[in-house]
Amino acid sequence: MELDGTEKLGFLIHDAARLMRKRFETLGRGLGLSSAQWRLLVRVVKSEGVTQARLAELLEIEPISVSRLIDRMEEGGWIERRQHATDRRVRMIFPTEKSREAFGAVKSVAGEVFEQALEGLSQEERQTLIHGLTTVVSNLSDDEGSYETMPKGAAA
Domain named HTH marR-type: which ranges (predicted)? Predict the structure, then answer.
């Protein structure tokens, strides 16, 4: 088998994501949110009215963990729960004004992390990287459309 670098793909993607998340956490400490909280905040701001069950899927955490996270964020005034109009069992999550204001800061920190990560790449190389990763995600998504649900300018 001829080695062309593809044998490193999984490790490189995993390490890049881990390092970006770590850098975001370092730069984002001043926002007063944990990593899990800012991830949820971004999802809620970008998808107002998302259900708790869908948030659990998007964040890849157990529904009970999402419920506890939402409890803490609701107590802090970051989000609010509302009953679904036709199904009382379903709870929908909406951002508060506090979340919308913090979202700008989160986007700013994410942009800084992205610039640091992409330093040394030309605009064409950046576009090629994004296109390639989008294709990889699309190929593996099983109709989840997860790259489409990722907010632009938001760290995952």
Answer: 6-138
